[in-house]
Amino acid sequence: MGIMAQVLKFLPMLLMAFLTLGTYWMVQMNEPNLDTEKQKRHVPDYIMDGIVVTTLGPEGNTKFRVVGQKLTHYEDDASSEIDWPIARRFHETKPAITVKSDKGFLDGDMTILDLVGNASLTRPAQAATATQAGSARLFMSSSKFTVLMNDDIVKTNRPVNLEQGQSIMTSQEGAVFDNVHQKLTMIGQVKGRIESESKGNAP
Could you tell me if residue 131 is inside a domain? Predict the structure, then answer.
């Protein structure tokens, strides 16, 4: 009985100790890992001025070249924000197209470039060849373009303006420019005028 009395005497203290340990364990299990939370925050890990980003094709040739005044890189998703970006697409058999805007957002895989604010696309005039008719300079503008770098497509779902030679067209629903097939598709109701080069050059 003496031993049992001693055990019963300290039993409340033992129970309190177990409860304290259990509470501490539960708090530790439910408390967020501060290091993990810090890693997930969308904050810059480095900033560079006067940048040039080049993506290469399968044979090592330059496919896209993006220049900008400043690049801000984010660690959590490896994306980049670019001030005043200018991107040029190089192709062996097609004229180089140039797209630019006030801000650029490049994804971590370097496959999607969003151009925001005063976005424009320019394709220079093409001289006629034995197999292809010539075309006038093409200029397209909108508030935002999305460049699918692997697919060689520039698209927007915002209001867009198109100028080519003397032709002017607009659409409130966007457009898609396919550089592979040199094809421009305007979406929705299109307004404007289309004039032949010969008419536009007539005195």
Answer: yes
Longest CA–CA span in the chain (Å) reads: 122
Please, which residues have CB within 8 angstroms of residue 156's CB and are 6 or more apart in sequence?
119, 142, 143, 144, 145, 146, 174, 175
Q: What is the pLDDT of residues 61-106, one digit of tens each?
A: 888 899 999 999 998 888 999 999 999 998 777 788 999 999 999 9
- Asked whether residue 200 is assigned to any structural domain, the reply reads no
Is residue 65 within 8 A of residue 54, CB to CB? The reply is yes
List all residues 6 or more positions away from 131 whose beta carbon is below 8 Å from its beta carbon: none
Cross-strand partners of 184: 177
200, pLDDT greater than 50: no
| Token pair of 20 as six digits | 């304290």
Retrieve residue 93's tokens: 């058999």
Q: Dump pLDDT digits (tens) for 181-199.
A: 888 999 999 999 887 655 4
Structure tokens at 52: 């040039």
Among 197, 186, 133, which residue's Cα sits nearest to residue 162? 186
Tokens describing residue 120: 């424009």
Q: Could you tell me the CATH number of the domain that includes residue 46?
A: 2.60.450.10
If one counts every other C-beta atom within 10 angstroms of the C-beta of residue 74, the result is 16
Q: What is the pTM of this model?
A: 0.72
How far is 152 from 25, CA to CA, in rounded Å? 54
| pLDDT, tens only, 27-57 | 556 655 555 555 567 788 889 999 998 888 7
